[in-house]
Amino acid sequence: MNLFKRWRIVVMSDAKEGIRQFSLPKIIFFGFMAIFLTALLSVWLTIHIIESLSVENEELTASLGEVNTQLTEQDEQLQQYEKDRVAIQNRLDELHLLEEQLKDMISSLNPDRLAAFEDGPKGGEDFIQRDDVVIEQASLTKDFSGDYNMIREEVPTLVEEYEVAIEELSQVKEQLKQVPIYWPADTERITSEFGNRVDPFRQVEAFHSGLDLAGPWGTEIYATGDGVIEFSDRDDSYGLSIIINHENTYKTRYGHMARLNVEEGERVKQGDLIGLMGSTGRSTGVHLHYEIMHRGEVIDPYPYMTFIQRVLNE
């Protein structure tokens, strides 16, 4: 095909008009067609690319929406975690406060003392052991009984348990005010136990009805429980002595004192200062002879004196 040849185009109208002839080179025609087809192909490709990009844009938009949703959910979770963290911190602060309250209550019940038995001053009225004398041996014991989500669930339970413990301990504390569980003197030195011993004056085996605490002259002596002063005077071998009626089947005796700070009929509270340690009466040196009587019978004071200490250790 010769592209340089021409096509002759004849245009005819009605009879009045003449015949028009045009001459069109083949190369121009084919060039125009090539341009047209190329443009048509370009338009098609453009539309196809636009459609593809539109689909990808929709997919990206959907993915972006999912990401935004996830970010929103994570942000909400973080906000919830922060609220939970603050709530847990508040609960933990409450636990610390409750713990301090428990410690205060426990420490107020009895001094934290560890006693040891030593040789030293002794005294008091000793009794020759007889088979027909029954001594009550008393014993006082009482049993007070992961991950983030686990902590969040367990902390309220711990708070409730602490609150219950405080309430129970508060009730126990009230009940124990008239029980002689307070340490009777400002000294830890025990020189003679309750029970059989060698009488320091007669050098024979005899029954010791209390417990001896030794200390310097003037050591402070305290009421071991709430009660009324039943006796406050000199009492033969006990010297200057005090008896407190705790009005609940318990009585306590404090002997060999240097000074009496209370009078008969006076009401005292657990831990009140009632006198000073001395060596009056039947005594080998400065000490306190301390007795507990329960339903009229003398019992070993030591389990009562160490009651809170033993409960906490158990």
Descriptive notes:
A hairpin with a 6-residue loop joins β6 (195-198) and β7. α1 (26-109) packs parallel to α2. The chain starts with 5 loop residues before the first strand and ends with a helix. The protein has helices at residues 26-109, 148-176, 302-305, 307-313; strands spanning 6-11, 20-25, 116-117, 126-127, 189-192, 195-198, 205-208, 211-214, 220-222, 227-234, 240-245, 250-260, 267-268, 273-277, 287-294, 297-299. It is built from 4 helices and 16 strands. Strands 3, 5, 8, 9, 10, 11, 12, 13, 14, 15 and 16 form an 11-stranded mixed β-sheet that branches. The protein has a 3-stranded antiparallel β-sheet with strand order 4-7-6, with no helix packed on it. The chain has 314 residues and is α+β, with helices and mostly antiparallel strands. Helix content is 39%, strand content 25%. Among the domains are: 6-66; 118-140 and 181-313, Glucose Permease (Domain IIA) (Distorted Sandwich), CATH 2.70.70. Keywords: Coiled coil, Membrane, Transmembrane, Transmembrane helix.
In short:
This protein is of the alpha+beta class and 314 residues long. It is built from 4 helices and 16 strands.
